[in-house]
């Protein structure tokens, strides 16, 4: 909500001096049976409507966010000599994928307040409301660390190339363990750490073909899917035994 | 070649899965065990979510047991009556097991439960089997290969009510012990993603006093139905059966089992049992080690918080 209001304010600014024009290397990502991960090339230009050349340090921020899902973060502790999950924190909203690419380190091109409002940095993109466990901060840090280890959360401080203060491009690598859904790409243009323009678009990521069919079957017709799995297993077992006796003769 | 598993939602190497299926297949062919107790932990190690590994493994065991039971039916070494009693217990146990599994999953303790079950049962069975086969080897070398049959002792099992005749096994005993054995195995099948043969076979020999030749066939008969039931329960309540994963493991397993059976024929039974015992203890040791040593990442992520 805060984010929406913030965007609204940005968009409502009159007479923009600089505007983003955007292109994408692909408008959707298909997860097939042999999906090994992918990458999206996001490129664009900064359009200037006459007027004087804008001044101040130019910043370009590109974020790509997967669908939000609640997550439970659990911490292990030693109990009776073995390591057991003890404390846990429910994170209400965490993107399943989140990449922030910038042309310079984020804190050099965005003020703290702007980050608070727009929730650009990874820490801000995760929200845990009403967690009662002490030190919930450590749990969100752990969430970021674990997901970063899986390539799901990425911070690319020099991931955006800017040429002549006009053209920019960035390559966001997508790992194989993606969650399906609409991925939101957002591009922010900043001058002297203040956002001057904003552009957003969605990139659907979905399973296709066999993957799609099996996933739907498993969830919507679970009973038949179970029976299908069993018949495959029984057929394979019977086949193996038949082939085996054939070989023996 | 990487392949994306639609239910597990991870991308893994297809040849790795075929290879794992093959190796476990060889071992199961050699030792006459289902191999679930090896495959499920191996699936954990390569990063398949535990819930998916357990459910899918149950499905795979249906295949390997079915293939095995056909051979036993031909040789008439299946006690269908005993199998049915065990099966009734097994179905009750499996239902209980899935309920426990889902409850602990919501608490975030399912991994611990599965690992503890593995450590306890593998440790027990492995140790028992190891010493038993050591004794057998010593006896064989002393007595020149004549083993003394020690079955058919009369114990408390024979003093319970509801007696029933089991012709193929040549037994006249109460139905309560086989029912209880069935329930235990059913619970384990649902929680650990194993057929439970490694528990049921010793229980049938030592507790029920069944003749060894009908034990394997009868346990396989029971395992097919219990794991099939478990598969259906997991598929309809958790949506965690990954058919692509199952097929890859199956193909490797089926080929491996054939090679394994041929190797097994060439080895002595006591040596085989000692090897199996050592392997069981090794898996147990690895799992126990993981529980005892401080993990490199103390935090773990679970899905969807509140359920």
Give me the secondary-structure category of chain B: mainly alpha
> Helix and strand succession of chain B?
EEHHHHHEEHHHHHE
How many domains is the backbone of chain B divided into? Answer: 1
Would you report the number of β strands of chain B? 5
Q: Give the helix proportion of chain A (percent range).
A: 25-40%
| N- and C-termini, Cα separation of chain B | 36 Å
Q: What does the radius of gyration of chain A come to?
A: 24 Å
Backbone CA Rg of chain B = 19 Å
Strands of chain A, total number: 12
Shape descriptor of chain A:
extended
Q: Largest beta sheet of chain B: what is the strand line-up?
A: 1-2
CATH class category name of the largest domain in chain A: Mainly Beta
For the report, how would you describe the main beta sheet of chain A?
6 strands, mixed
How does the major sheet of chain B shape up?
A: 2 strands, antiparallel
Helix content of chain B: over 70%
Termini gap of chain A:
73 Å
- Our count of domains of chain A comes out at 2
Mean pLDDT of chain B: 79
